[in-house]
Amino acid sequence: MRSVQEIRGGKIEQQGQIAEKARERCRRPMANLRLAIDSAFWDLNVSSPQLIEGTAKAVPGEPSPLALATTARTIRPLQLSFLANALPLGLIPSLAPSTSKDVGSFAIQSFLFTPSADNWWMALVGQFRPKKLITNIKKEVELGLETFRHGDELEWSQLKRFAKHFVDKSLYAVGFFSQLSLTTDTSLLFNVENHGDKVGRRTKAMLLHKLENHDVTLEAAWPELFVDSKGSYWNVPTSISLDVSSLIPDSGLGYRFGLHKNDGQPQALNSPSSGIPLTLLPGLCAKAAFSYEKSIDLWRKPEKDSKARKSVEELDEYSYDVRLGEPHAAISGIVGGTCAAWFGGDKSTNATVGYQQDVSEAGQSVILNSKRRNRFSADMFGSLLYTLQLGEFKKDFIDLTRIDARFDIHSASSFVKDAAYLISDIVKGRVDREMNPLASPKFNLILQQQVAGPIVFRMDSRISLGCPSQKQLSRVEDVMFGLSYSFRLLQSGKILAWFSPTRKETMIELRLFEF
């Protein structure tokens, strides 16, 4: 992981080996395919401005999130350190609806300070939501003008009340982050944040260890924030996970296994829901998954070797992003299986838990669906991806058009069962049944188009193709829009601003050597 000093000045040194690995990975469009296996586990982070940390967990057992929604590999404080130098006044804006309506959605983050040593660093990040302050000041100004119109003088209590609005804790949030490199292969990350408009603090610790052919991750959070496919957020009081994943090559067999434990009843944060996801209920889950990947180039125009870059003047001859520097067409696929065993927890989800609408009010309830969580489950999944890229992303105009079209079957058993229902309905007559969202195949489409120079517009969408047995028509489930600015000096680095209409959120991120 790069140090704060390297990112802080925006002068990350070019690293030939990293660039070569990135170039090799870009020849195989596997990043989108691996969402299938990643979404089966609880360590799939998605970007979210709800927390200063900038991430939330995707609810396992649901359709995989859009590729644009997956979080950056560079942790948030290091992103903010870079963005503070790239954006005016060092302020990073975001749009994140709050549970307290008077606080507003618009927020501004600022990177405060970051002491560091050879194997350790810490960072302090502040956040400010100005809507409530502006509204209150406007009221105070109107009240003051009304006082002057009547010929009265401002009283000390009025001035004191005016100043008190600036120290309203609901306007502010603060986050503390730290990383300690125990060895060259082991790192410990810790962060805690407190939001003035919410009750309690959020704490997370993560231990990362790299083996020769595996990555080991031990993570604990209290509480943990999850987001489902409909954009609803859930708080799980305590979540602990241990994941071991193999280093998957461009093609071939990969696997992962782990343990996940939840404690406490999940709580909906931003909207009442008709049912809590079964995978968020208390209990211990042992999981394992495997996958086999294969990619075939239909055609490809290789880019020049990145080692030929000898001076800044020669940079214009190369792509703004080494991962988008080779026009090509390719077909890739992944097929795999998962199995899970649950221990402990409630056998049935017939229960009622509180739904907290804001800091001051609670008591609304979420009635859970009368479903049972299977003690043991096994399933298959598969994805097929077609990629077409035109242009080398070198010129200032009309030099990049890219389409990624992916067809997903998240649950082979649900898909086959739905097909059997369709045949039964044809032979014996239609029967009303509850629809399983995983039975419907998903079509994911990513469009990228160069606007001018290093600026690229991107749109990600997920379309449900419908369940034949339910005669359900195809519909758009989710869509996201993004605008990125790539830096040639970083070889594969860009500032990305995205907007999610489903979640009504906007966020600015730094992404390095990522799709």
TrEMBL record:
It comes from the Eukaryota. This is Protein TRIGALACTOSYLDIACYLGLYCEROL 4, chloroplastic. GO terms for molecular function: phosphatidic acid binding. GO terms for cellular component: chloroplast envelope. InterPro entries: TGD4-like. It comes from Zingiber officinale. The lineage of its organism: Eukaryota, Viridiplantae, Streptophyta, Embryophyta, Tracheophyta. PANTHER family: EXPRESSED PROTEIN (PTHR34954:SF3). GO terms for biological process: acylglycerol transport; ER to chloroplast lipid transport. Coiled coil: none annotated.
